[in-house]
Specification:
Number of strands: 10
Distance between the termini: 80 Å
Structural class: alpha/beta
Order of helices and strands: HEHHEHEHEHEHEHHEEEHEH
Length: 296
């Protein structure tokens, strides 16, 4: 009897020690399987076109041209004054009805903001345009001239407030060319009131001016609310002669769109001014297809 009790105690002791030294995979809590699924990419669900891209067609038949552009997938238009006013000779009610019919929002218009501002603002307000944009001021002779221009921009923004319209300035390459040891675009950014003045970044023009567009966007978060999406062929040739179809150039739009959206960009407006192949309308259709499919 004593021998049996002794054997039982020895066996129990050995089993206890065995449990203590069991392999960890039998003791540890099961690990969660690491996910190998990539984060899904995004696409732009809405984008626009600057109607200047098809200015010849707009001059012939603006209504038919805008109908065709809507058929290509554009949900937003940015206008320009082609000599018939920002509504292309239409009354506000007529223009608004057209936009509603074709399913497009007129988000902005380039115009001469230095003349007849209030009349243009009234028209813009009646059709729901959100921005009136200064497309060109030309190279200024000095930084002081750019400071004076910034003061005018603030005044324009103030005048547009009662109409519920915002003001923005659209750059070319000249504001990124160093002058008196500074970049004029920096002067415009720093001397304007963010509550009164937004900016439309023409990415083509910043690119051909040899600006790191990604870094410049990050430098001024929240200031660029609109942008022009147009591509530049590789090289260092005439900056006015490098425009190509989207996806045929060297500008990394997937990265820039993703970054700019995170920094406050709201409107992505396709523009093309040089057409190495095809017609402007064919380019507009191809560019819409490219941007609709672009993942970022």
């Amino acid at each position: 009897m004593k021998n049996q009790r002794r054997k039982f105690i020895q066996m129990s002791t050995m089993l206890g020690m065995g449990a203590a030294f069991m392999p960890l995979q039998f003791c540890a809590a099961p690990k969660k399987e690491e996910s190998l699924v990539e984060t899904p990419k995004s696409k732009l669900d809405r984008f626009g076109i600057q109607l200047y891209s098809v200015k010849e067609d707009m001059a012939i038949d603006p209504v038919a041209t805008m109908r065709s552009l809507a058929g290509y997938g554009y949900k937003q238009f940015e206008g320009f004054d082609g000599g018939k006013g920002i509504l292309w000779g239409m009354q506000p009610a007529e223009f608004k009805a057209l936009m509603s019919e074709i399913g497009v929002e007129m988000v902005a218009s380039h115009c001469n903001v230095f003349e007849n501002l209030e009349a243009q603002a009234q028209q813009a307000a009646e059709v729901g345009i959100k921005y009136l944009i200064c497309p060109w001021i030309g190279p200024q002779k000095s930084l002081e001239d750019y400071r004076k221009m910034a003061t005018q921009f603030n005044q324009i923004g103030e005048k547009l407030k009662p109409f519920g319209i915002k003001f923005a300035y659209h750059n070319h390459d000249y504001t990124f060319v160093e002058q008196e040891g500074q970049i004029p675009q920096d002067v415009l950014m720093n001397e304007t009131d963010p509550a009164l003045v937004d900016f439309e970044l023409d990415i083509y023009w910043s690119h051909v001016a040899n600006v790191n567009t990604s870094e410049y966007l990050a430098k001024y978060p929240g200031r660029f609310r609109l942008c022009h999406v147009k591509d530049a062929e590789a090289g260092t040739g005439d900056p006015h002669q490098r425009g190509v179809l989207l996806g045929k150039g060297e500008i990394p739009y997937a990265d820039l769109i993703k970054q700019s959206k995170e920094l406050g960009m709201e409107y992505f407006i396709i523009e093309q001014e040089r057409f190495p192949t095809g017609t402007p309308m064919e380019a507009a259709q191809a560019n819409a297809q490219y941007l609709a499919a672009l993942e970022f």
